[in-house]
Structure formats: structure tokens, C-alpha cells
Design brief:
Length: 473
Amino acid sequence: MGRTILGGVTSSLAIPLPDPSSVERLADTVLPTRHGTFRMTAYRDDVGLEHVVLSVGITDESAPGHHIGRAPLVRVHSECLTGDALGSRRCDCGEQLQRALHLIMQDGYGALVYVGGHEGRGIGLVEKLRAYELQDTGVDTVDANLRLGHDADQRTYGQTAAMLKDLGIRVVRLLSCNPAKQEALTELGVRVVSRQSLIVPRRPENAAYLRTKRERMGHDPESVDEWQALLHGGGVLTTGVLTERYADLVHPDGPKVIAQLGQSMDGFIASRTGDAVFVTGEEDREHLHRLRALVDAVVVGSATAAADDPQLTVRAVPGPHPTRVVLDPRGTLPGDSRLLTDATAPTLWIVGQGVEPVPAGDHVEVVAWHSEGPMDPAGVLSLLRERGLERVLVEGGGRLVTAFVEAGMVDRLYLTVAPVLIGDGVPGLRLAGTDRLADALRPPVVRRWQAGEDIVTELDLAATRTASRVMPV
Ligand SMILES: Nc1nc2c(ncn2[C@@H]2O[C@H](COP(=O)(O)OP(=O)(O)OP(=O)(O)O)[C@@H](O)[C@H]2O)c(=O)[nH]1
Ligand SMILES: [Zn+2]
């Protein structure tokens, strides 16, 4: 690549581009920054260009890509002296650089590849400034490059793939607004499991430049509603707190079975009379509704359905309602419960053999359990899968969540703890227990955040399954 044909004539200005594809690691040190301390690794490529990688959580010993089931967050940043070092407002590079470093440090697992030789989208600093001269006369960023005899974008990414490989990174969550970067990396054998746009505030001075990138270079639109992007399958994701929290759930390889419990500091989900209004606060309710919106089905036990009479629909945020599934081995769900009377969402009423269910509305499908045995979690999940209900939220109560966890069926558990001491009541999770604390389940924490007064902790139970410990059933 690199030669531009102008009017059928190869421009004499188009310089054959060096295309670095291998690198040598020459230094490995640390760099304290305003965002925290990064590992800093330096490289020189086969055409003599120098590059650095700032990383966190990446070691030569670790096996990236398997770190608590997540790919590292990776930014491939093109060198831009004016934006990165001089604070230029003609482009968005400087702010993207700082934002990316912040996000990577906050995530605790990722890398920023700072690519040398990419200045001016590969045309070099002086040529970029000549392009700026043209842009000062009203030419846009693409045409300015072309008039100077360059391609609109002359960057290549062989050096980037080589550095990632050297650091053991084969799978990435990419931070970029540029789909072409994702394609280039994919072609070079880097698996991009998701791409998050890195949109920074527009300035009057760079508004036209950013518009050209979107209109002529295929960059992501400026405002993507983060929650809507997640609801629509998470192909391209924005950067923000919701994406950070929920992107895993919409990813094709993401967790399929999730569970949630909201409990007191002493581990109860309701008082001893069954009063559960409300253990956790408003923000945890919103989180729960987001989980419901992102799954296909929500499962509850009949005792909880009878006690709390929940609607299990999505009301706190916009989003589709899941299919509501109630496991009712003895047919004890009251006929006037909202799952049976409220037709806002479909209900799948799974009853034990021999149970004669009361008549219910058209939104209710009654399914008789296939055997006389118990409704085992694996069997329930395969019944749901047969109906196309892949992503499942096990919502309660404590016994049902415990059964699914003990059967090793839950990939992620969201446990919200509220600053309340109930003293005695309906317990939350109650695993079989171990004699030695060393044998207790210590799932990796994927995320933890404060929701109002409460703390939500997201635990990676899938990671504990692969450990040698056999889950008691
Ligand atoms: N030729 C040229 N290069 C520019 C101009 N403005 C910024 N650049 C260079 O563009 C490179 C950054 O590319 P961008 O198109 O801004 O963004 P991107 O890297 O493709 O996509 P993101 O990953 O979303 O940042 C840097 O190397 C800048 O030096 C310009 O007007 N002309
Ligand atoms: Zn720039």
C-alpha cells in the first residue's frame, strides 16, 4: 500500500511506506503517571521505528485472555505530537490518550500501545502540518492528504500485532472509534472480542475534523446512547459506566446464566416473617432491572413468587421484558399472583408431574416437568434453551439461587449487600459449607461498585468451576 493514484498518475510525492511487522523488546520498566503506575515496555521494529506499550495486569507469566474470563482492554494509539504532547484542539488525540489510560488503569487489566511512525495517519509530522495548511483554507482532512499525494490513511498495524503477541495478548477489547483498526488487527490475527468507542468532548476547533472522520472515514457517530447500544447486542459499544458493567452480558461468549441476591450485612434477604420490602435501595433495583432487560428469561421459585408477588418486568429502565419462569413443583403458586394475571410479559409456569394448574391467561404457558424427580438446575436450563431462552437470570429466592450455584450452573453472581442488620430471617446463599476455610469458595471479583448505600459485587463463579474443587450437589 502507500501509493496514491491521482488522475491516473502515481503521485511522485507518495513515498513507499515501510511496513514494520516484527519488533524487538528492548526495555521493560515502570512509569508512574497521574492515572497510576503502568508497566512500560519499549520496542524497536524491523524498520527502526520505536514504540512503547503501557500496561497494567499484564505479566510475562500470566496467560492473558484467561484472566477472570475477560480479554484485556487495549488502546492502539497513533502518535500525534500536536495532540498528545502539545494539547492541540485540532484533533481529539490528547484527550483520547488520557481517557484511555484512565480507563485501562481503572479496569486493572489492559494495555495502551503507543505506535510510533503513525504521526499524521502515517504521513509524518511535517506532512501533517502541510495538510493543516490546506485545511486552513477549507479543505477537509481527507482531501488535504490526497492533495499532498498521500492516502487518506497510511497506517499499518503489523508492529502493533507483534507487540501484543510479545506481551502474550491474543484477544482484546479494543478502545477505538475506528472500525478499520478493528479490521486491520483482526486480519493480523488479534481477536477483537468487542470494540468500545472512545468518544471525548467535541471542541469548536475540532468539530469539523471529527465530523469528517465520521462522514468520510467511517468512524462511530458522536452520540450513541450507551444503554440502547447494549440492548441492541453490543456490536459497537460506547465508553461509560453501563458499558463497563454490562458489556460482558451482551457479548456472544459472555456469561449465560447469572444470578442475583440482595441481602443484609448479616446475610438475610428478608425478615423472619418474609418481609422483603426493601432490603437494598433504589439503585440496586435499577441494576436488577438492567439485568432483567439483558436476559431472555428470569427464574424464580414458587415460594418467592407467592411471598413477594413480583412482576419481574423491566420498569426502572427502558428495555424488553424477559420471559418470567416460575418453578412450581407442587403447584402452590396462587391463581391471583401477578405472574399469572398480568400479561405484560410471557410467563412459563413449570409445574411438577400430576399438578393440576389453575386456569390462567394466554400469556401463561404451563409446562409439566418431564420426570417425577426434582427440578434440577441443569434440566431447567436445558428446557429453557430448547425454547430459545439462552441468557437466564436466577433471581431468587435464596434457596433457588443456592441450588443453581451448588449445581455449578451459575456463571456470574451479583451479590448486593445493604447496610442493614436483620438479625434473623430468610437466609440468602447457603452453600453446604466446608470444615477448612481454605476450602471455601473464593470466586474472583469481576467488578464491585457502590449503588447508593449498597455495595454490588460481581463474582465470577465460572472461574471456580474450572478449579479442581468439585461442587457438592
Ligand atoms: N493527515 C492528518 N493526520 C491527522 C490529522 N489530524 C490528526 N491526525 C492524525 O491522526 C492520527 C489519529 O487518527 P484518528 O483518525 O484521529 O483516529 P483513529 O486512530 O483512526 O481512531 P481512534 O482509535 O478512534 O482514535 C494521529 O496520528 C494524528 O496525528 C489531519 O488533519 N491530517
Ligand atoms: Zn491528533
